[in-house]
Q: What sequence folds into this?
């Protein structure tokens, strides 16, 4: 049910890497300014899906449409990407503001000419992600949450319509994770930029998500949180019986009684009775 | 010359053409290796830099065998090696070092043959010492145009790909997602690195060339937190070490054993190492302060 104005449309996407099916008929769509959570355990295919959207991984079947065009050429300019946290050398001669500025024109040849408008734009972006206090620190010496903000600013300064974030909450403490989610939510609202954020932990996104794409073993279901995060829907996706438990507004997805199979990382041992509301 | 400085300089220092040429070549090459070296350190490609230095031994000894200038040998040898590394190009983590190591091993095998032939056919050991440890005083003025041309080429290449190279050096993943042809940029940089190492080899010797590539850049990275500043500082540190090394080498003709002079490359490398050690002091002092 994709609409022509959708910023991203993924249709029947199949990806095989050395004979293994990584993605199997994945379809979903994202409208401008929507906050979408891509939920799945490690190995569910989240990073592969991002790589296909970015045009770095060919698909064996299906299509990816960005803003009405393909992911090559103009379409890719509409997509910003924030990778999983990577290790930067603390001695890297690059201040946080330099990395943000690189987001403007890193794909151009030659040496950048400093200009007032360029500096103002970088300053504005640093403020938008709350990175002012550490703008002059070397990027390699920032904390995980601070680096995440700088990478978001680096992606946003190129004015994308869709921002992909690969596990931005992993390795962050709860407070920083909450701050990053709040920052992203305000970006989607204020700048009408769609956000697709992958995570293996659904709870930090529950209050802010417009839509969920739930990925398990290469297959996906998508829709609103109440449509997707349900026992019958997820049981069918996993191919096992799964219970969805609501614990004071937090969601626990657990293997159903009598089913001993491992649910790719979502297995959670709970006492047989007790904490349900 | 002021009375105070007179004892420092041996007679005739400023009148000597050889010294002027050495100082000029040393400065040009130090600027190139400084600029290129900053990226070598950022990209963690010190091993490739070292490999080109060692492979220079093959090119230099081969050139000597053919009777052409050693710089031609360094340049051609390094460019062939760079292409071979790209063609092997193992695309997985640390695969780059593997390709470098394979090419390096093969090249050094050839160097063993060339150096043997050099010393048997020409009945001289001078060639080996010059190629391995170099002497900025031994550069002939006829080589100067080639040195300048190669320097400009290497500098122009790095400045041309500056922005995509910088981002791919920070994160190849982010650069690729941005549509930057990461592998092509890496190959262009490898050519600049091959040229810079060849220039360093003619100046301070093939196996010492890494010192001029890595030393100034590694020191500059500790002192400056902006890429352009680090590049300028690396060039300046290299020039300072070259010039001071030339002064000391010239002066060493008066040191024991008198009348022989010590190798200029020894002074340059020792100075670079000292500067690297000193460049750690500001950071150390900062940490001390923040611990209190």
A:
């Amino acid at each position: 049910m994709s609409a022509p104005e959708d910023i991203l449309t993924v249709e029947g996407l199949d990806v095989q890497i050395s004979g293994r099916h990584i993605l199997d008929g994945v379809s979903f769509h994202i409208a401008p300014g929507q906050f979408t959570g891509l939920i799945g355990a490690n190995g569910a295919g989240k990073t592969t899906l991002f790589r296909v959207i970015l045009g770095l991984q060919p698909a064996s079947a299906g299509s990816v449409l960005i803003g009405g065009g393909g992911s090559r050429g103009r379409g890719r300019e509409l997509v910003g990407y924030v990778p999983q946290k990577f290790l930067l050398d603390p001695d890297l001669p690059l201040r946080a503001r330099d990395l943000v500025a690189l987001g403007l024109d890193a794909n151009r040849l030659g040496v950048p000419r400093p200009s007032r408008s360029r500096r103002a734009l970088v300053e504005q972006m640093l403020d938008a992600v709350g990175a002012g206090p550490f703008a002059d620190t070397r990027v390699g010496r920032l904390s995980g949450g601070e680096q995440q903000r700088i990478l978001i600013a680096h992606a946003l300064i190129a004015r994308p319509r869709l921002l992909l974030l690969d596990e931005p909450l992993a390795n962050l403490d709860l407070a920083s994770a909450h701050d990053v989610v709040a920052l992203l939510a305000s970006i989607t609202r204020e700048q009408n930029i769609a956000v697709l954020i992958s995570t293996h932990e659904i709870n930090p996104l529950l209050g802010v998500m417009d839509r969920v794409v739930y990925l398990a073993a290469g297959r996906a279901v998508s829709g609103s949180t109440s449509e997707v995060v349900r026992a019958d829907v997820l049981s069918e996706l996993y191919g096992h019986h799964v219970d969805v438990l609501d614990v004071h507004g937090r969601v626990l997805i657990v293997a159903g009684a009598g089913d001993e199979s491992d649910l790719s990382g979502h297995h959670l041992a709970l006492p047989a009775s007790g904490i349900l509301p | 010359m002021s009375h105070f400085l007179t004892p420092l300089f041996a007679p005739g220092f400023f009148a000597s053409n050889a010294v002027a040429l050495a100082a000029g070549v040393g400065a040009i090459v130090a600027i190139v290796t400084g600029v290129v070296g900053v990226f070598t350190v950022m990209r963690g490609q010190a091993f490739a830099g070292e490999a080109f230095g060692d492979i220079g031994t093959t090119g230099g000894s081969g050139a000597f065998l053919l009777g052409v200038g050693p710089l031609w040998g360094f340049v051609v040898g390094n460019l062939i090696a760079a292409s071979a590394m790209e063609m092997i190009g193992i695309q997985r983590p640390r695969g780059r070092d593997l390709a470098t190591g394979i090419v390096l091993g093969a090249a050094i095998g050839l160097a063993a043959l060339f150096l043997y032939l050099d010393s048997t056919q020409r009945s001289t050991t001078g060639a080996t010492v010059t190629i391995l440890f170099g002497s900025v005083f031994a550069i002939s003025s006829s080589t100067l145009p080639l040195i300048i041309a190669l320097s400009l080429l290497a500098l122009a290449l790095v400045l041309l790909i500056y922005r995509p190279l910088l981002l791919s050096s920070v994160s190849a993943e982010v650069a690729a997602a941005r549509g930057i042809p990461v592998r092509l940029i890496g190959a262009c940089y490898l050519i600049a690195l091959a040229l810079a190492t060849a220039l360093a080899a003619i100046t301070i010797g093939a196996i010492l060339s890494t010192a001029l590539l890595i030393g100034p850049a590694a020191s500059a990275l500790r002192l400056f937190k902006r890429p352009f500043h680090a590049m300028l500082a690396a060039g300046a540190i290299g020039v300072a070490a070259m010039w001071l090394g030339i002064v000391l080498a010239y002066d060493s003709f008066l040191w024991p054993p008198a009348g022989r002079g010590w190798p200029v490359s020894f002074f340059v490398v020792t100075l670079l190492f000292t500067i690297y050690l000193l460049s750690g002091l500001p950071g150390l002092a900062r940490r001390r302060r923040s611990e209190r």
Chain A has eight helices and twelve strands.
